[in-house]
């Protein structure tokens, strides 16, 4: 939808602003989740009709999650933007564009441009494992190693996220647009690559810091650099994908992010903790090891995609 609302050169900033909602969700969920856990953790189990017995941690999910159903109703007020620059071939009657593109055609387009899409999806998969692992196990690290309470962790993580991430999102979007104006066709991937390279040191050092304040500072620094990437990263995908293929390409992008990131990230950290370090208190070491290995591999994947991406951007300028 954003690619229909904004020209290619403004997409990094537009996507960055959209991600304010994502960041607000992460930050507020940490603060509210930690607060709700602190308020409910001493309550006895509650029995609800047709549901059964709910323990405090289950009540936390309900308390924090149910308002989201009300917010979802707001999507009914969103107006569909006018589709533009429909380059994909039509299969309808003469002069009438097809309403959708067959999935096989989308797969064919992605495969024919695999030198571009492969590194983009690959980098996302490799980075999302330690990134989501840090999100999932970072609080456990502070609780196990620095003996913080869940409420303390939630307030600290949420506050840092709400303060740091919006600034970083705008910096990343504006930097990509500035590089593009200077003639860098690979501006979006270039900023994403820079963000990953700057994110790795802080994310690796965070769980190795000897004190909680230093660890939280490293978390804030790594979060800043990580959040420079989403605007250019998503704009890169939209900018090279024909209009009626963007939904499927984005769905695959989110599949990789969710299934590999959220699905494998926490599990990988748990497996490293159990089978490499054999100590629950060494979860920080597991986080550092996963980041130190997979972060640079993600950057290398993007390096391979820079030139093909730049050539495709130049070839499709004003056409997609």
Question: Can you give a write-up of this model?
Answer:
The protein is globular, with a radius of gyration of 21 Å. It has a two-stranded antiparallel sheet. The longest helix is centred in the C-terminal third of the chain and has 33 residues, at 283-315. With 320 residues, it is mainly α. It contains 11 helices and 2 strands; from the N terminus they run H-H-E-E-H-H-H-H-H-H-H-H-H. It has one domain (2-74, 103-315): Growth Hormone, Chain: A (Up-down Bundle). Mean pLDDT is 89; it is low at 88-96.
Layout of helices and strands:
Blueprint: H1 2-5, H2 11-40, E1 46-48, E2 52-54, H3 56-72, H4 103-112, H5 114-145, H6 150-181, H7 187-205, H8 212-226, H9 230-240, H10 246-277, H11 283-315
Antiparallel strand pairs: 1-2
């Amino acid at each position: 939808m954003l690619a229909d609302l904004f020209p290619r050169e403004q997409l990094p900033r537009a996507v960055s602003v959209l991600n304010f909602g994502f960041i607000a969700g992460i930050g507020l969920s940490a603060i509210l989740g930690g607060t709700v856990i602190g308020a409910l953790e001493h309550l006895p189990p509650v029995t609800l009709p047709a549901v059964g017995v709910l323990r405090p941690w289950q009540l936390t999910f309900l308390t924090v999650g149910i308002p989201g159903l009300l917010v979802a109703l707001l999507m009914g007020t969103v107006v569909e933007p006018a589709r533009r620059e429909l380059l994909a071939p039509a299969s309808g009657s003469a002069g009438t564009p097809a309403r959708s593109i067959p999935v096989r055609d989308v797969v064919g387009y992605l495969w024919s441009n695999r030198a571009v899409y492969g590194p983009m999806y690959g980098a996302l998969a490799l980075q999302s494992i330690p990134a989501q692992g840090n999100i999932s196990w970072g609080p456990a690290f502070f609780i196990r190693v620095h003996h913080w309470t869940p409420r303390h962790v939630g307030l600290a993580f949420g506050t840092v996220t709400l303060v740091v991430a919006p600034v970083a999102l705008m910096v990343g979007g504006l930097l990509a647009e500035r590089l593009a104006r200077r003639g860098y066709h690979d501006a979006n991937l270039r900023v994403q690559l820079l963000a990953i390279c700057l994110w790795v040191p802080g994310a690796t050092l965070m769980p190795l810091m000897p004190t909680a304040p230093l660890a939280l500072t490293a978390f804030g620094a790594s979060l800043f650099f990580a959040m420079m990437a989403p605007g250019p990263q998503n704009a890169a995908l939209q900018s090279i994908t024909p209009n009626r293929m963007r939904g499927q390409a984005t769905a695959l992008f989110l599949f990789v992010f969710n299934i590999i990131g959220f699905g494998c990230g926490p599990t990988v950290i748990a497996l490293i903790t159990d089978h490499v370090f054999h100590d629950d208190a060494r979860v920080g070491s597991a986080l550092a090891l996963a980041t130190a290995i997979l972060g640079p591999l993600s950057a290398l994947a993007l390096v391979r995609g820079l030139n093909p991406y730049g050539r495709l951007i130049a070839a499709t300028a004003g056409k997609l």
